[in-house]
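Dear all,

This email documents one entry for the complex benchmark we are building for the journal club exercise. For each entry we list the sequence lines for every component of the assembly. Then comes the predicted three-dimensional structure of the complex as a token string, followed by one or two observations. Please use this as the template for your own entries, and keep the labels exactly as they appear.
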Amino acid sequence: MSVRSIRLMSSLAVIGAATALMSAVPTPVRADEGMWTFDNFPIQVVNDKYGTHIDQAWLDRVRGAAVRLRGCSASFVSGEGLILTNHHCVVGCVQDLSTAENDYVKNGWMPGVREEEATCPGQTAEVLTDIIDVTDRVLGAGAGLEGAAFNAARTSVTEAIQQENCAGDPKLTCQVISFYRGGRYALYKFRKYDDVRLVFAPEFQAAFFGGDPDNFNFPRYALDVGFLRAYEDGKPVETPNHLTWNPNPPAEGDVTFVAGNPGSTSRLLTMSQLERLRDQSLPIQLIQTSELRGRLLEYSTSGEEAKRVALDPIFGLENRFKVYYGQSGALTDPAFMAQKREEEADLRQQVAADPALMQRIGDPWADLARTQIAARDLFLPYYQLEARAGGGSTLYSYARSIVRAAKDQARPVEQRRMSAAAIAALNRRLAGEVPISNDLEEIYLSFWLSKTREYLTVDNDQVKALLGRESPEALAERLVSGTRVGDPAFRQWALARTPAQLAEADPLLAFVLANDDAAKAIDDQWSAAVEAPTALAAERVAQARFAAYGSNLYPDATFSLRLSYGQVKGWTYRGVTVPAFTYIGGLYERATGSEPFNAAQGFLDAEQQVNKDTVYDFVSTNDIVGGNSGSPVINAAGEVIGAAFDGNIHSLGGSYGYDGTLNRSVTVSTAAITEVLRNVYHQPQLLDELGVD
Amino acid sequence: MSVRSIRLMSSLAVIGAATALMSAVPTPVRADEGMWTFDNFPIQVVNDKYGTHIDQAWLDRVRGAAVRLRGCSASFVSGEGLILTNHHCVVGCVQDLSTAENDYVKNGWMPGVREEEATCPGQTAEVLTDIIDVTDRVLGAGAGLEGAAFNAARTSVTEAIQQENCAGDPKLTCQVISFYRGGRYALYKFRKYDDVRLVFAPEFQAAFFGGDPDNFNFPRYALDVGFLRAYEDGKPVETPNHLTWNPNPPAEGDVTFVAGNPGSTSRLLTMSQLERLRDQSLPIQLIQTSELRGRLLEYSTSGEEAKRVALDPIFGLENRFKVYYGQSGALTDPAFMAQKREEEADLRQQVAADPALMQRIGDPWADLARTQIAARDLFLPYYQLEARAGGGSTLYSYARSIVRAAKDQARPVEQRRMSAAAIAALNRRLAGEVPISNDLEEIYLSFWLSKTREYLTVDNDQVKALLGRESPEALAERLVSGTRVGDPAFRQWALARTPAQLAEADPLLAFVLANDDAAKAIDDQWSAAVEAPTALAAERVAQARFAAYGSNLYPDATFSLRLSYGQVKGWTYRGVTVPAFTYIGGLYERATGSEPFNAAQGFLDAEQQVNKDTVYDFVSTNDIVGGNSGSPVINAAGEVIGAAFDGNIHSLGGSYGYDGTLNRSVTVSTAAITEVLRNVYHQPQLLDELGVD
């Protein structure tokens, strides 16, 4: 079984794509809102509201225990490098360690002795050690320049700063991060561990109980926990600065902090931008994701092998669908939109009342409204021909990379955009063995082709060029069955060839090549007519916010370490009140025996031993998003009381704004983890390491 | 091949469901807008604008030649009862007349001699002969009453009027129709012919060339034409009052009239109603239709039989999808919504300026806004548990009818809602043999169950009751494989049984019965909290319109005879200009040989004979919607120049408002029909009857 649960995991690709829209935070900052950087946390606000005694030392301890994984968050929870995170952040590793004989995904990974802890391929653990303000240097490097020269200067100074601070030391990561849409730049310096081993993972069905129906919902009965350990020189890393494990559950109303790496938010979009997302981008994505979901679900009923290969793509699709649905839910909520409208009106009024400011920033709202007209016109061709080209086909994605590299290398040296290093990296990617299902590839390609014809119409020139005289189904079948791009050796061979050679060598490469100029043209149009003016205008909106509200703001999420605060609290929606806690006993009541509501075998076996009154999962008002998966949930004393693994459906509106009455984080409690380590999975050595007797 | 193309056909079920939202027309009436009744046609406006000489005699002639079919429109085009309509309005008949040896759907129906014209089962042709105002009598019957007594009095007077005017004469149809949301009532009296025979139908692939990709699009190359003939006493009916056949195409800018029966529009919804449709109803329908479409499309690839049984449901789904998509396109168009907002503001201002009027109608806009809050809360349970219950399953639909009848009959006689006649009608329906695919039934039921769980969540009491401990897939499989409801004899047997007997007799009946009280409860809630207050408020909005704008308004569509006017004209959208005409030669250029762009065999064979310069299809600004399929398109001289068969994608916004710059009707020209009857299908006798040499 290949599994990739993504819920609150962050995709770096997504983050990259969204940066053009990043911006600062709306105001006034309401209760418990905010993904605060550790150097600008509202200590006094929190202490006043919750009667806590947070101070800089408390913050430093938490920061030093927080761990960034690939796409996830985590924390040290013992002095010997033990890392707490989510099961869905380690399941890829569990899969990698599984064999035909030992299905650790199904049965869990629990060697019980440290010698058998096994390295997770590709995983790293990074601890933020320093935050250094480099705003002046970065801004100074671009001053007076524009266009390509400006971009080059910025890139150059960023690389220089990173190089100076980490210079070649493989134990360090240095990253210059933009905050507040370029309002501030900071160097984030990390201590990096690249031998990260798997310590414990429960059975998949324990971690993902409830499957898609329960995903982004609550009440919840998921043991979404996994333990890793950082090693160096073959030995566990010493981590005296770790979070103390508190095996007791919080009470309703208790204050909670979440330290982690939220991936991406877009809370400063203007009304015209939000309306276009609501009216066009999200509906198209919801509709197309739904039809593809239907195709894959039906395909998966056609046999055991079909079910197996479709499982992972279906998880991914259903997760994406819910994210879009939750985002759409916020933008179609009259109250949510009224609040956004009010905030925008307030900011515009403040600008209008300050002639100097108005003179400086102009009217970016009007500029963005005009940009939406262009975006509405260009979105469908851009989406179909460029952004979603290939429809998720792995073969297509390889083919496009090869074609674009060949076109780049065919240019005079001074006009090439891909460095030798980039070509080498691509070569390594192309060399990787990746399982490919021709059935799925045909579904992806024919779906994409038929939707492109449907949305751009039969009479569109690009559609005519794509299809020629073939049907989407026949063309997809011909390309998939005829291409050799599925073979790593062929891919590497192809990377060294000219466009003409590619066109001759392979039908899929020929197809991509024949349509690539048109795709690049629409990409350029989108970039010029939408992205560029959006970035310029959004920067001016951000300046207006700083001018109007000062610096007591949190920046949009950028997969960098943040701290949110809140409290344990249920919520009420449409007359239904959802309590803050679930208990282990509820799992047995919810379990029907039918997938995905079949309890894991370990839990069934232990029903008489386990304490059913133990708090299982709980919700809190903490403001988190994708990327926060695995984040430690921390009490006022700085002890860890759980691992955040999900948000409720309303939290997905957190992409655009935080609503404290509805947004909730979902956490698996240390109380439950302790109980199951003791009475379900029998891991005394782990309990001992966690300091639990 | 079972085929049901529905495009502009009207579903009476849909009409019935939509009546609660029907209302009068927005103002100011813009260019070419309106579905006018024949007793209130804006003669002077049209004559002034187009230099025509329309008068009452012209209108009477057109009315007398216009024919209403089941769900479609048509017209007499010879003195011997020959009827012009669309292929997709007769394809069900073609299917009924086909045998294993003779597939007339594929090959066309063209006997060439009158003796072989064959009766279309269930088809009728109705010609409107009288319009009698009965407003006072209907309104008087309800005066002073309310609730059930009011409804009973209205029903009783309606039935009395119909009975008095048509009393038992099988050659007449009498129907009291509500216009302007109850502002006016009229008796429509029809001459009815119930022996309607099939004269000519081209090959399916000629009529439906381009399939779903071209549906609701233009340029178009579809020969969507069929001929019927009305018979009486075994002889063709004499129809001296028919439209003269003009074999010449119109020119760009020529005036065009369309006489037919638009099914249903909702142009007077208030902004709060439109916004809820945009934000909730349409997205849910688009999303769910898309996923089901994906399931059926993938299922249809699993084999020849699967392809065959899924063809008709996929056509239906794809057509519905496009209708929702087009409607959504209007409601997410900033300009369209701005126009609607302006119209509403104007009307409200006029009311505000007239204290007496304001006193009389109050603030129905505020009432409707409040009602939307209730509707947003109730919509998902209502949609999942009642409106879409069963997800399209035929077995479920039968089972629910049987269960509801049994529950009704179990009541004391005086509390029953179903009359003996209604039970008898249900019995006839249950007795009918209908092909049922168990595969599709399982897809429908499991899809519905899984979406109900997804949208109402696992923790909803009704969801728990529906699923028990089973998965959606297992439950659907158990119900479909175990039920005998697919057997007409069993259905009739079941109709005479008590609820307890049903629960014991059959798993599907037991399932429906067990969940029916909850479904009825949410239906009652929806009715009380949404439908009732909506009807009351909408009536007051209609009164405000009459008061503000007088009677020079057209009523919303009610599948009653209307006349629209317009002109032959292309359109421009997002920089792309679409010309008004296509030519037969274009078919050969568009044909790729790949479904659905494979030209019909007749056209391929005749490529050298047919005149490729003949106008094929054309668009005009006429304001039509579903139900208008087959409507004669008429020139200023009262001659028929085509049969309307579709609208462009923008015309689907016509449900909510007419935009003359974009909305277009799509018509197959008499020029093309004449040409293909001559040089493709070789039908000299038909040409002769049409008066073409």
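Observations: The CA atoms of residues 271 and 658 of chain B lie 16 Å apart. Chain B touches chain A through 52 residues (CB under 8 Å).
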